[in-house]
Amino acid sequence: MPRTLITGGAGFLGSHLCDYLLDKGHEVICMDNLITGNTKNIAHIKNQKFEFIHHDVTNYIVIDGPLDYILHFASPASPIDYLELPIQTLKVGSLGTHKALGLAKAKGATFLLASTSEVYGDPQVHPQKEEYWGNVNPVGPRGVYDEAKRFAEAITMAYHRYHGVNTKIVRIFNTYGPRMRLEDGRAIPNFLRQALKGEDITVYGDGSQTRSFCFCSDLVEGICRLLMSDENDPTNIGNPRELTILEMAEKILKETGSSSKIIYEDLPKDDPKIRQPDITKAKAVLKWEPVVSLDDGLTETIKYFKETLSL
Length: 311
Ligand code: UDP
Hints:
- This protein has nine helices and 13 strands.
- It is α/β, with parallel strands linked by helices.
- The chain has two domains: about 5-175 and about 215-240 and about 280-285, NAD(P)-binding Rossmann-like Domain (Rossmann fold), CATH 3.40.50; about 185-210 and about 240-275 and about 290-310, UDP-galactose 4-epimerase, domain 1.
- The strands form four sheets. A seven-stranded parallel sheet has the order 3-2-1-4-5-6-11, sandwiched between helices.
- α1 (about 10-25) links the parallel β1 and β2.
- It is globular and about 55 Å long.
- The model has no long low-confidence stretch (mean pLDDT about 95).
- Uridine-5'-diphosphate binds near residues 78, 187 and 245.
- Uridine-5'-diphosphate binds near residues 186, 190, 202 and 211.
């Protein structure tokens, strides 16, 4: 039975990965310092093969016994979080990735880095292919996340090339679903919370910027296929269905039946104008593509938000 460490395992995506891999028969060690993760995301797990360790991965990681896989998901990941936690974001992407890679090398484990479409910055190529190097402002407010992840990719490739560690890099595009924090500041949780509570929907700028949203179960399936593949170069995983943020706000109003009104606020600095994954590679190499429609994904997410808000 494989033994797997998931850093950031009590976060939104980390906890879905815990569920998925336990279901596949893995023994799962979930590590989190809980600055943005929450034990309520893993509270439902009763499996004997599951263990939670409260630890900050920027410090030396000690795991007794063998490890077959390490999925490095620890990091603040929403713009609000990394603006509030800039140093922690830089440290977990750099020092934390170094520690996790060192552990992978020592254990002979396969290592998967959770990277991000933010490595493409405000892209000048559309849709974004893995070969595109990006357009990132290193000293802007988002630079702490973007550059930390770019460094994380570089050190991951160095451990692969120099130390022969079997590494994978997934570039995750916007994802949504149950267990997103209601207050994490991202578009879908903000719009859903606002719509369900009858508050104004805050669209930043004129709402013409685009994003492409992937439901969490599709993303987890893609990541786990990448983990088990022979691919070592970065791979985009996301849903290419692109829409403007205004269209998303309107869609959420309709799906929730809310009478909230849309208001316009300032666009945050360096907010990417367009974003859409080119998933040609994932389709060819992993035989993967998203299968959950936006309607179905939103229905499940709305259900979770209603339960969490006790509506
Ligand atoms: N956004 C918005 N209103 C909100 C939150 C976000 O208009 O209340 C916009 C944000 O400026 C960005 C897009 O929605 O253009 C997606 O933002 P998110 O924080 O979800 O993720 P990003 O893709 O920017 O990392």
